[in-house]
Design brief:
Helices cover 43% and strands 13% of the residues. By secondary structure, it is α/β, with parallel strands linked by helices. The structure holds iron/sulfur cluster. Iron/sulfur cluster (SF4) binds next to loops.
Length: 480
Amino acid sequence: METIHFKTVDPVSQELLRYASRKGMCLNWERYEKQQPQDGFLRLGLSCPYGCMQGPCRIDPFGRGAQNGICGLDRDGMVAALLLRLALKGALETAAEYPGACDAKIVWSAPLASRAAAALQQAGGDSVSHADILESALLLSRPSATPEALVRQAIRLGLLNIGLREQRRADAAARDVCVGYGLLAGEAIRIGVTGRIPRAIIETLLKETAGLNHPEVRLVSLGDWIPAGEEFLPIACTTGEAETVLSSGILNLILAGDGTDPGILALCGKLNLTVVSHAKNAEAAEIVKRARGAYDRRVENTFTPDTAMIGKGRVSLAATEVEAFLKGRSRIALLGGADTLFQSLGHLPVELAKALRGEDHDVASWGDAALWMMKQDLSVGILDAEDGPLTAVRVLAETGRLPALKGICFTGLRNAREFTFALGLAALGLKVLVATPLPLWGSEKVRTKLRENLTAAGGVLTHFDHPAQADEILDGLLRS
Ligand code: SF4
């Protein structure tokens, strides 16, 4: 536990982790440690992604063992196929998030149209559509295409990811958001909300709990950005801290939506914490009744957060608000993304934001990274957790101010969709950095082809074979 600062920069989280350790609770950090070292073949892209039934085949990165799969596939083909498979998964996830956009032809907004056209020309063809998803699936049915073709197709899917987001340009008003353990302070029945919960359920629950007192009933998110009325639901912690908060015993009930990690559900089981799945269509009154019952049966917990531990922000959702924030700024860095256990939670977002501001950059952020910055009272712009970076790029392009954008850094990637988003932004000719290692280091040829393709469109995708340190990211943003 003397290495606790390697897990999180938040002293309260550190104390909660010590408490969980004393109680013998196994949280995400213990599972992470037991997974080390993670699969080195897959990490390098040298574990075959084709899913053929003759495998799985792997290629020895040091040249001492197998250099080809059973079918003869070599390292370049394997790494390029893994890149395409990641991009395909990301495109499918994006298509599922924006179902309406899949039926229509991709129409680019005026500020991005010329960039998209130039990028698509480099990537073969003047348009991109969901037919590219099917084409990619065919390419991954059996090794036959060259690494060059696979890399090009991955870039097309990156552009499709952006194109699908372009079809859903929201113009919602700005929303306030608050974050921090202080939201759990005082006497209250506390319902933790995690995963994707339909907005209607949250609105109904808020109506049901409004005006309930002695004690009040409080809904808090465990890291997800959930619209609630004119604001976001208050966020008690970042996604990486969700299990830490659960282990404190301060919550009385969990409302779990799609995408809730199995580890969260298992921990709730061990803690005898009531979980209501939104999929079961429980009535709001029933949820509140069950939370009250759990509150009445509660045992004393030792976690007594300070009401001062609350950070506040205002999320710019509409292009006009993003424009108002970015107006007049001469050096802008977009810095955001999900928590990752590869790094001490909060370390990269906070250190990078401070360093960039010290170098006269204005910072706008999204996702868990933005929550860490708010927790530390850093003055940054807050963007929509999903499409915020793209909205900012569109606004800057429209006003001819893209040169002010010095880079877009993903401090963590949660899934293939976020990776494909990063790839698509680089394909649009932007400078993108990813702190999470990408599985491309098994083939220099694939990395070179990817770099050449992106450079031809004016873009850069900087990535590492290890979790990137703050100075490496800063070098990429400020000095290259
Ligand atoms: S596609 Fe080739 S390399 Fe991949 S698992 Fe099948 S036989 Fe092995």
